[in-house]
Predict the 3D structure of the following.
Amino acid sequence: MTTSSKRPLRADARRNRDLIVETARAAFASKGVDASLEEIAKTVGVGQGTLYRHFPTREDLIAAAIQDDVEQLARNADKRVRARYPLKALGEWLRELALFSRTYSGLPNRVLDASVGKSGSFAELCGSLESLTDRVLVRGKETGQIRADVTAEDVFLLANAVAWSLTKARGTELLEKHIAILLRGIASGTNEV
Amino acid sequence: MTTSSKRPLRADARRNRDLIVETARAAFASKGVDASLEEIAKTVGVGQGTLYRHFPTREDLIAAAIQDDVEQLARNADKRVRARYPLKALGEWLRELALFSRTYSGLPNRVLDASVGKSGSFAELCGSLESLTDRVLVRGKETGQIRADVTAEDVFLLANAVAWSLTKARGTELLEKHIAILLRGIASGTNEV
DNA sequence: GACATAAACGGACACCATGTCCACTTATTC
DNA sequence: GAATAAGTGGACATGGTGTCCGTTTATGTC
C-alpha cells in the first residue's frame, strides 16, 4: 500500500527520493515539521523542483518522513489490543502517541488539519492512527471499563490536543497528569488508573 | 493598567492606533490571528511602519484587539466565582473560554506560546485568563468537588487544548462532550456534571 | 556502443509576508 | 508662525513557497 502501482522510479530518482526523505526526517525532528523545504533541498543537494516533484505538498513529505515511526507505533498497538487491562493499555497507547508527537514539533497541528480535510497520504496515515486508537478502545468498551458514548474520534482528538499543548518543552510529569485526567473522564464509573 | 504611563499620544497617532486595532480585530475574527499585517495596514490606509511602531510584535496587536472580549469574559467569570455549584460553574467557564477561542482562529496557538515564554502584553492577558480559571477552580476545591491535585495551569492548558482541537469548524456537540470528559477527569469521586 | 526518448533535474522566477530604516511630514508648544 | 519632537509611509532586505521550463541523464533498443 505504500509504494504506488506505477512503474518503478528511475535509479537516480529513487536515490534522490530516499535522500530527501531521510534528510527531511532529520530536519523535522530537529526543527519541527515546518522546517524550510528550500533548505532541506539544499542540504540534500537537489533543486527545489526535484523535491516538489516527489512531494507536491509538505504533508506528503511529512507522511513519508514519519512512516517508519508510525509503523512501529502500529506494531506496539497491536500488542495492546489483547492486553489484560484495556484501560491501562489505552493509557499506554495515549502516552506513546503523545511522546511520538513530541518528536516532531508542530505535528499535532498537521494531524488536526488532516482530520478535517481528508485527502492525501498524510491524512491516510492519520486515519490509520485513529483506527489503531479505535482498536484499543473497543476492548475497553467490551469489558465495560470505558463509557459507551466515547468514540475513537473523541479519544484521538483529545490525545492529539494534549500532545499539542505539551509539545513546547514541558516535563513529562504534566503529560502523565493530563493523560490521567483524560482516562478518568473516559472511564465509566470510578475505575482507578 | 491598560494605558501606559507615558505621555498621551499625539492626536493623529491616537486615531491611527484605534483604527488599526479595530481593523485588526475584524481581520483576526474573519481570517484568524495569522492574518497578514501588511494587508491590515493597507486596509487602514497607513504604512507598515506605522503599524509596527504601535505594535512591535503581532502579539501586541492581538492583545489590543481582543482586550474588550477578555474584559467581558472576566466580568462573567467574576459572577461564577460565587456560584452555588462550582463544578457546573467551571464547566460554563470552560465553555465560554472555548467559544471565545473559536472566534479568533489560531488563538490557542498563541496562548500556548505565551504560556511558555512569559513577556509582553499578550502574555499578561493570558496570565489574567489563567488567574480567572484559578478563581473559579478554588471554590470547587473548597467544596471538595474538585480534586486537590489539579492546578489552574492544568485546567487552563487542557481547556485551551480542547478549544484548539475544535477550532476548525466542528459542531458544538463535540465541544460539550469533550468538556464533559474533562470535568469528569477533574472532579473527585463520581460527581455528576 | 550509439541512439532515441521519456523521465528527471535544477534553479530562476513570481509571489507574498515580515520587520527595519530613514527621509519626510505634521501636531503641538511657546 | 517658527522650532521641534512625534509620527508617518513606503522602499528595501530577507526568507519562504510553489511553478515553470530549458537542460541533462538513465534506460531500452538496435
About this structure: The CA atoms of residues 5 and 47 of chain A lie 26 Å apart. Chain A has two domains: 8-56, 58-186. The domain at 8-56 of chain A is CATH 1.10.10.60 (Arc Repressor Mutant, subunit A). Residues 58-81 of chain A form the longest helix (24 residues).
